[in-house]
Amino acid sequence: MGLLNFTREPVPEAVSADMHNLNQLSAQQFSALTEVLFRFLTEPKEVERFLTQLSDFATMNKISLGPLKNIVKSILLVPNGALKRNLSSEQVRADFIALGLSEEKASYFAEQWKVNSPTLTRLAVGQTLVINQLIDMEWKFGVTAGSSELEKVGSIFLQLKLVVKKGSQLENVYVELTLPQFYSFLHEMERVKTSLESFS
Amino acid sequence: MAALRDGDFAALQILLKAPSKDAVRQLCQECFSSPPAALGPLAQRACPGLAVSAQEAEQLVSALHNLTRHVVYRGLTGAEDILRLFPENFHQNLKNLLTKIILENISAWRSEAQASQISLPRLVDMDWRVDIKTSSDSIVRMAVPTCLLQLKIQEDAALCGNNPVVSALTVELSKETLDTMLEGLGRIRDQLSAVANK
Questions:
Q1: What's the structural domain count of chain A?
Q2: Structure confidence at residue B129 as a pLDDT band (50, 70, 90)
Q3: CA A20, CA A16: separation in Å to the nearest integer?
Q4: Between chains, do A186 and B189 touch, taking CB under 8 Å as contact?
Q5: Which residue from A29, A115, A131, B38 puts its CA 20 to 30 A from A69's CA?
Q6: What is the mean pLDDT of chain B?
Q7: Taking the model in full, what pTM does it have?
Q8: Residue A191 resides in a domain
Q9: In a 3-state reduction of DSSP, which class is residue B126?
Q10: Which InterPro entries match (chain A) (predicted)?
């Protein structure tokens, strides 16, 4: 086997046999299976649903579930590696062919990959490490009417509650700003937005 | 907030023993700024300068604290309003001097009162930087801009005395989060304008 795009490590031996089995499926069967796979890849939390759909596929096409799961494991190696390395659909197609999948099926899968890759990329980026992510911001502002030291105050206050994700816990941070500070904060945030936009 | 008591004006007349007008001025400022708990030590320091007993110094300091704080609390701004506080038989020159000193300091004292108001932790500083994430364990090559925002927050000044605790909170914002935040801030600005224009 030549150099693969999706991985630098040697591929498990079982993969060739799995690809050979895949080639035995009809075009319709392969298309149905691909659909199940991509639905799982775009919604990785729906594990139960994925397993149910695989089981239904196995029953409908009179394939044993055990071997089917192994085949699926082998297939998934490629899109997972491809996602990590930002591979193009041509590279994905080439890799499947190198692994032993028929040209027709490899091209079909590569097409589906092209269609789904924006969603998948966004998901992968979303999984990137974020430090102290800002989850939510609540605010209120009002007027301080009086205090123990001043009978009549009449100044405006602004209070922000920032919900920050620290590790797996959420932490609430309360801050009070004066009016000039608020305008300065708003101005700075607009500068950040301009900066972020120029890099997008 | 201390209220004016009957004995206060009698105690204030002790100021007639002060060495100079500047000494009176100085004492007024110190008495205003001092929290009630620190009045005792302040009286002890004032004692020698006034050549009075410890007890008299305490009464004076307390009276001056009450008077200055009362004026600031009520928001009195005119000389007439302040003069009216003094009883009929109060020493004329001393009354005028105290009124003059109070008027000189009233706006600074008002700002001081507002600054030391209780509040939620306050924002004292804010810094930001924009990073481009180029790689991670989940995706080898990307170009995702992200913002790191550092807020320096100071705990309630009244709780910390002279050593305010400043904590730094660094938060990461994606472009989407920032857009949502700006939307919220924009709404605040619009509402503030609406209130200001009423």
A1: 2
A2: very high
A3: 6
A4: yes
A5: A115
A6: 88
A7: 0.73
A8: yes
A9: strand
A10: COMM (IPR017920), COMMD4/6/7/8 (IPR047155), COMMD7 (IPR037358)
